[in-house]
Design goal:
By secondary structure, this protein is α/β, with parallel strands linked by helices. Helix content is 34%, strand content 16%.
């Protein structure tokens, strides 16, 4: 895999798949970017450039653990752009990675073309999802055989009474079958220090980020799954309201990893957004 140097000298890895216009794809977690795969076949339409965040996948561990902070990872993304010699880049980010992408758009708006936020996390802009909202969307799955145990765990978690976080995993998938279980295991972060450091004190500046995004003059897509308990549709719509030019797409029957639930729907929506001549999204 090709590599580049971060601002502090940490050697970071990335992979390239597909042909066409480049799209830099920022993983969540922080976890090994392998869980993104080729985003359900999006590589048939675009050249996907997928970095491994520092301390994950094939990227090196940093000498300074404080560099796992989200704001420091924004600097790594800019180093990748310079390495690729891209005057401007389209960005796609998933889950926690959307905080990195939002921070990058706020800091370097002139370097961004189109911005696609998939299953967005909103820590960078300090938007919250209430426990009741999560429970409301969870109840859409009441007919699933796994629902009683998963919902009981969710109630305990959202009410601050402990609860087994692993037990609610089915809520993050459009279907909870063998393939989903396998992908769930692959997508789990394995660097606890990176996860803990990502949101450490100073990682986010919500007020400053909101102000910068209010002036962000490029197209934005926020795509979430109908059943995404992590990033339910109301959150995506509220997040979209922070941008001057943002569209929301809610993928039917999908969870937090929509490209695994209906690859064709996902790739059609995202590719249409990323392709200037055919920009439209499904609502």
């Amino acid at each position: 895999m090709p590599t580049f140097s971060a601002p502090d000298g940490t050697l970071l890895s990335y992979r390239v798949t597909g042909d066409g216009d480049p799209v830099v794809c920022v993983p969540g977690g922080p976890a090994d970017s392998a869980y993104l795969g080729d985003l359900g076949g999006l590589s048939a339409h675009h050249r996907l450039i997928v970095p491994d965040l520092r301390g994950t996948g094939r990227s090196a561990m940093p000498a300074d653990p404080s560099s796992y902070r989200c704001d420091r990872l924004v600097g790594d993304l800019e180093a990748l752009r310079v390495h690729l010699d891209l005057p401007r880049m389209d960005l796609l980010a998933h889950s926690a990675g959307t905080n990195i992408a939002a921070g990058y758009a706020a800091r370097h708006p002139e370097r961004v073309g189109r911005l696609a936020l998939i299953g967005p996390s909103s820590r960078a802009v300090d938007l919250e999802v209430t426990g009741e909202t999560r429970r409301e969307y969870a109840r859409l799955r009441a007919d699933e055989p796994w629902f009683p145990a998963a919902y009981a765990a969710l109630v305990e978690l959202t009410e601050g009474r402990g609860g087994d976080a692993e037990a609610i995993a089915p809520f993050f998938r459009g279907r909870w079958d063998a393939a989903a279980r396998e992908h769930h295991a692959a997508a789990r972060p394995d660097n606890e220090e990176a996860v803990a450091g990502f949101g450490a004190e100073g990682a986010f500046d919500p007020e400053g980020t909101r102000a910068a995004l209010a002036a962000f003059g490029h197209p934005v897509l926020l795509l979430t799954g109908e059943f995404d308990l992590n990033s339910p549709p109301p959150l995506a719509r509220e997040f979209a309201g922070l941008f001057p030019d943002a569209a929301v797409a809610v993928q039917p029957g999908a969870g937090h990893y929509p490209w695994t639930d209906d690859a064709e729907w996902f790739t059609t929506a995202v590719s249409a957004f990323l392709t200037p001549s055919s920009r439209n999204t499904r609502q």
